[in-house]
């Protein structure tokens, strides 16, 4: 693909990154930031859950507007959208649980249904769930809606495991890491379908990252290391920033969309 992406009949080429090790590292760190940054804004800055949710939702909509309008994958813009959608996904679940009193198990079921319904609508409309087929605005809208529900579901599932079932943050992180490892093994060793493996792993990285974030930031008497949400958020944001700068310069994760896209 050339530096200037081609646009014809509403086609947008190269709007998402190639799935590399950098993709998964930044994605997991973004999920951790989503958990800790939401806590930082809500509690440390005393903005409150409602004000924090409204502000982050507006910021997300602004960034998504530019992301969808641009003609090609821009690492800084794409990953900023992912970080913000991670925060908003966390806040959506927090609002349902903390403000409306919904049980974590109920929230997990609701977001599972919402995610499956989005997948069904996406496939019915486009006949593919592959990220290698994100070359129209409609498909990109399905893509971002799916990601929002994966973050909301991951938050609910992670909190359900760690807090609802009293497994603790460390054990929850280990369980989700083992599940991710099992998906990777099934994909590389037993030829699990690529699209299914990708989205299954994508969902699992959210509760894994959230559990890691809570383990690092929460007080020791609550099962964490006590680093605090400020330190944890800043450390991971700096790492994400360094990786995004590298990807912007190296362009190693630019996606080349084939004629018949399959993951």
From TrEMBL:
Keyword Transmembrane helix part of the UniProt annotation: yes
One Pfam family here: DUF347
Transmembrane segments: 12-33, 45-66, 78-97, 103-125, 141-161, 167-188, 195-213, 225-247
Tagged with keyword Membrane: yes
InterPro entries reported for this sequence: DUF347 (IPR007136)
Keywords: Membrane, Transmembrane, Transmembrane helix
Record-given protein name: Membrane-anchored protein
Organism annotation: Paenibacillus dokdonensis
């Amino acid at each position: 693909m050339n530096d200037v992406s081609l646009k014809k009949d509403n086609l947008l080429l190269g709007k998402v990154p190639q799935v590399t090790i950098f993709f998964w590292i930044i994605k997991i760190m973004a999920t951790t930031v989503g958990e800790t940054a939401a806590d930082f804004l809500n509690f440390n800055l005393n903005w409150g859950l409602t004000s924090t949710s409204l502000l982050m939702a507006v910021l997300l909509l602004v960034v998504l507007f530019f992301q969808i309008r641009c003609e090609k994958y821009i690492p800084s813009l794409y990953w900023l959208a992912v970080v913000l959608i991670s925060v908003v996904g966390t806040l959506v679940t927090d609002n349902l649980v903390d403000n409306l009193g919904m049980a974590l198990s109920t929230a997990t079921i609701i977001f599972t249904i919402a995610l499956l319904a989005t997948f069904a609508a996406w496939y019915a409309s486009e006949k593919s769930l592959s990220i290698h087929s994100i070359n129209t605005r409609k498909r990109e809208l399905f893509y971002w809606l799916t990601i929002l529900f994966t973050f909301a579901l991951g938050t609910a599932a992670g909190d359900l495991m760690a807090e609802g079932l009293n497994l603790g943050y460390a054990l929850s992180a280990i369980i989700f890491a083992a599940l991710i490892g099992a998906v990777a093994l099934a994909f590389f060793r037993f030829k699990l379908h690529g699209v299914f493996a990708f989205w299954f792993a994508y969902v699992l990285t959210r509760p894994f990252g959230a559990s890691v974030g809570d383990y690092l930031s929460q007080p020791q008497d609550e099962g964490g290391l006590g680093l605090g949400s400020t330190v944890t958020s800043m450390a991971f944001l700096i790492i994400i920033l360094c990786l995004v700068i590298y990807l912007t310069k190296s362009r190693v994760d630019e996606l080349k969309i084939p004629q018949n896209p399959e993951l």
